[in-house]
Amino acid sequence: MLAFANAKINLGLYVTEKRPDGYHNLETVFYPVKINDVIEITDAGETTCQIKGIDIPGSTTDNICLKAFDLLKNDFDLPAQQITLLKNIPVGAGLGGGSSDAAFLIKLLNDKFQLGLNTHQMEDYARQLGADCAFFINNRPVFAEGKGDEFSEVDVDLSGYKIILVKPPVHVSTADAYSGIVPHRSSKSLKDLIQLPLKDWKSNLKNDFEDTVFLKYPEIATVKQALYHEGAIFAAMSGSGSSVFAIFEDQVKLPELEKDNKVFYNI
Ligand SMILES: C[C@@](CO)(OP(=O)(O)O)[C@H](O)COP(=O)(O)OP(=O)(O)OC[C@H]1O[C@@H](n2ccc(N)nc2=O)[C@H](O)[C@@H]1O
Ligand SMILES: Nc1ncnc2c1ncn2[C@@H]1O[C@H](COP(=O)(O)OP(=O)(O)O)[C@@H](O)[C@H]1O
Question: Which pTM does this prediction carry?
Answer without folding.
Answer: 0.97
